[in-house]
Specification:
Blueprint (H helix, E strand, L loop, with lengths): L2 H26 L15 H4 L2 H20 L13 H31 L3 E3 L2 E3 L25 H36 L11
Helix pairs in contact: 1-3, 1-5, 3-4, 3-5, 4-5
């Protein structure tokens, strides 16, 4: 597959993934669909906005850059062979890789630590020091009195963020290599006998 088609394909995949991260982070801010818990009762990992900033905006930029790199070059069908846009896509993909790593690490910690919730009149990270993993013991999940069903909410959304950020990391890495090849070889769609 030539570098231009690959860039376009990767970009068109990264854009919806980044929007999915933004949506998941927005839902983490409203456990159970209610805004009553946002006043100091959400976990630090939710407030770090890893899905919005890291997996969202920082990956949206390379997604758009990759789609643009897959289009016609700045000089048309000849001359630079789309190398200018491919070079921009290299830097954008490196930026997106950092964003995906940020989203993955914060979401992983959020999943491991568990939500901040009310148990016996005390707001705290009650699952942080549970022997073993609270993820395997679903009977503990109903111990949180408020927000209702917050453990299900957090586990689902943080798991989604971990999965999507892993995909984004792979795709940004693929585009980083692809765009680097595009800088050196040009876009093979421009010429029939291109070496790429």
């Amino acid at each position: 597959m030539c570098t231009g088609k690959c860039a376009r394909c990767v970009g068109l995949t990264l854009i919806p993934l980044s929007l999915l991260c933004i949506l998941a982070n927005a839902l983490l801010l409203v456990p159970g669909g209610k805004t009553t818990w946002t006043d100091g009762h959400l976990s630090l990992q939710v407030w770090l906005m890893a899905g919005f900033i890291g997996g969202g905006l920082m990956v949206l930029c390379p997604g758009i850059a990759a789609v643009r790199a897959g289009g016609k070059g700045c000089c048309g069908a000849g001359c630079c062979g789309n190398r200018c846009r491919m070079l921009r896509s290299v830097f954008s993909s490196a930026f997106g890789t950092l964003g995906a790593i940020y989203c993955l690490s914060v979401s992983g910690v959020g999943l491991r630590t568990g939500p901040k919730c009310l148990i016996n009149g005390q707001w705290d990270y009650h699952f942080k020091d549970v022997p073993g993993s609270y993820l395997r013991n679903r009977t503990l999940w109903d111990a949180c009195e408020e927000p209702p069903r917050v453990v299900y909410w957090n586990v689902t959304l943080f798991s989604l963020l971990v999965f999507v950020s892993c995909l984004e990391l792979v795709l940004c890495g693929v585009q980083l290599v692809n765009a680097s090849l595009g800088v050196f070889c040009g876009d093979c769609r421009k010429k029939e006998g291109a070496a790429c």
